[in-house]
Write a structure and sequence with these properties.
The structure holds two protein chains of two kinds. Chain A is built from eight helices and no strands. By secondary structure, chain A is mainly alpha-helical. Helix content of chain B is about 40%, strand content about 25%. In chain B, a hairpin with a 2-residue loop joins strand 9 and strand 10. The chains are: A mainly alpha, B alpha/beta. The structure holds adenosine-5'-triphosphate (ATP) and magnesium ion. The site of magnesium ion has 4 residues of chain B, from helix 1.
Chain lengths: ~220, ~260
């Protein structure tokens, strides 16, 4: 029978704190950049110009249909060889995770926009708004309400996906845990603690999303 | 009885054509509405009334012909360039449109709905837009609903807000597309009353309607459409009481029966 000894965790507490800080900061960055990529791609998918639609669709499908781990490795190792531009592991990780998240956000944003009754954009146009004004003032505010729960769900997945950057030696929560596990020869305690740390951050967020989904269902 | 003085032409449609795929919906429509005139557009379902109305404010872009509203005009067809989004938006701002299903903005209060056009399109200062919106809500009898959200209103109230919202842009003309068709019968009157008042104030209007009695009373002229062409047109009472064309007679006979029932 394995003898658990969680007291060893205390001596690695700062590694955990640094790792968690980096993971949270990383998540904030890739969610923000991913939303930007997703908004652009989602709007391009609705463009009147077919080539722009194709471009957005190609981006979305490439990132959705290849494994994130492969993308990370590819951006870090292959891109510098192809372009001659060296990028740090952190930059490669942020770029990859943002683009990966953006491909999922794009579908959510596009779906949210088309779910708004066409009478709304007609009413906006009839008042003399340009399509851009109608999108900003009338469509997006209504669509955002519907998009919020799925966008948060995707962001929760993004939080977990950050653990993959440890393969590029970016010192996130998981990477710091690996360091601690090697050092202490106590991988069971360490990895259990890491799992709990992720859970403690994410579980309250999933509750918030579920509440939001329920409120939305009631208001429709 | 003297005719009210009418100056100039407010809406002019010449040779208007529109097709959706292989379906030719408008087959060369001519329509003139004098400034201050009220035209009722009637006809069976699918005859192209809504499409014509939506071509007048270019919500639907015609394939051929010409449309002018006030001093703005556009020609369509081979050799003409399609107007850009800015030009289209400016043109549409001059024609108010009210829809069958209201299309109010559900995420905004009633007051914000009415302020939206002046604020976003005309960049009016907020205080000015608010005063204008409040005055218009007062005019349609909904001053006390300013802070409500559209979902809380009855159909008749929603449609009156939609009229106020369109009026807030100070349009040269107003276009109404079956604005009472989605209403419970007891709510139709309050909307028609607002339209009647607008007509009396000299607003130029095109009204697509199945309210034949209302058209007879309020419109100067009636245009009967069928299968994408104007079949008959003339003074409202003449067309409704004594239609010349067989298809106009057939169409109107449905309503006489229903009105008596
Ligand atoms: N955007 C569109 N795409 C394809 N077909 C259309 C479109 N809009 C209208 N049509 C078709 O054009 C024809 C005329 O439609 P329109 O809405 O102008 O008729 P209407 O006279 O207003 O009829 P109703 O009394 O039912 O409102 C119909 O056959 C309709 O199906
Ligand atoms: Mg119609």
């Amino acid at each position: 029978m394995y003898q658990w000894d969680f007291s060893i965790l205390w001596s690695y507490r700062w590694l955990f704190v640094y790792g968690l800080e980096l993971t949270v900061a990383f998540t904030l960055a890739i969610v923000a950049l991913g939303l930007l990529a997703g908004l652009v791609a989602g709007l391009l998918k609705l463009s009147r110009f077919a080539p722009l639609r194709w471009l957005a669709a190609a981006y979305v499908e490439i990132f959705r249909c290849t494994p994130l781990l492969v993308q990370l490795v590819w951006f870090y190792y292959a891109l510098p060889i192809l372009t001659g531009i060296e990028i740090s592991a952190v930059a490669a990780s942020i770029m990859t995770l943002s683009l990966y998240g953006g491909s999922f956000y794009a579908e959510i944003i596009r779906g949210g926009i088309v779910s708004i009754d066409s009478g709304q954009s007609e009413a906006a146009a009839a008042l003399g708004m340009t399509p851009a004004q109608g999108m900003r003032r009338i469509i997006l505010p209504q669509a955002l309400k519907r998009m919020l729960p799925p966008l948060m769900n995707q962001s929760i997945i993004q939080f977990k996906n950050t653990s993959l950057v440890s393969v590029l030696a970016v010192p996130d929560l998981l990477y710091q845990g690996q360091v601690a596990a090697h050092d202490s020869y106590r991988p069971l305690e360490i990895y259990t603690a890491i799992a709990i740390a992720y859970f403690i951050v994410l579980f309250p967020l999933t509750l918030i999303v579920r509440r939001g989904e329920k409120r939305l269902a009631a208001s429709d | 009885m003297a005719e009210p003085v009418k100056t100039g032409t407010s809406i002019e449609v010449r040779g208007l054509r529109k097709r959706f795929g292989s379906l030719e919906v408008l087959k060369g429509i001519d329509l003139t509405v004098e400034a201050g005139g009220v035209v009722a557009l009637i006809g069976p379902s699918g005859s192209g009334k809504s499409t014509l109305l939506r071509c007048i404010n270019l919500l639907v872009v015609p394939d051929g012909g010409a449309v002018s509203v006030g001093t703005d005009s556009f020609a369509f067809g081979p050799g003409t360039r399609l107007p850009g989004t800015k030009a289209l938006a400016r043109f549409r701002a001059g024609a108010g449109m009210v829809f069958q299903h209201f299309n109010l903005f559900p995420h905004m209060s009633v007051l914000a709905n009415v302020m939206e056009g002046p604020l976003t399109v005309q960049r009016l200062p907020k205080a000015e837009a608010r005063a204008l919106a409040q005055a218009l809500l007062d005019k349609v009898g909904l001053a006390d609903k300013a802070e409500q959200y559209p979902a809380k209103l009855s159909g008749g109230q929603k449609q009156r807000v939609a009229i106020a919202r369109a009026l807030a842009m100070r349009p040269a003309v107003m276009l109404f597309d079956e604005v009472t068709s989605a209403l419970d019968p007891e709510l139709v009157g309050e909307v028609l009353a607002v339209m009647k008042q607008l007509a009396a104030e000299g607003m130029t209007m095109v009204i697509v309607t199945h309210e034949i009695a209302f058209a007879r009373e309020v419109a100067d002229r009636v245009v009967f459409m069928r299968d994408g062409v104007v079949v008959e047109e003339g003074p409202a009472k003449a067309v409704i009481d004594a239609p010349r064309e067989a298809s106009t007679k057939a169409f109107l006979s449905h309503f006489h029966r229903r009105d008596e029932a």
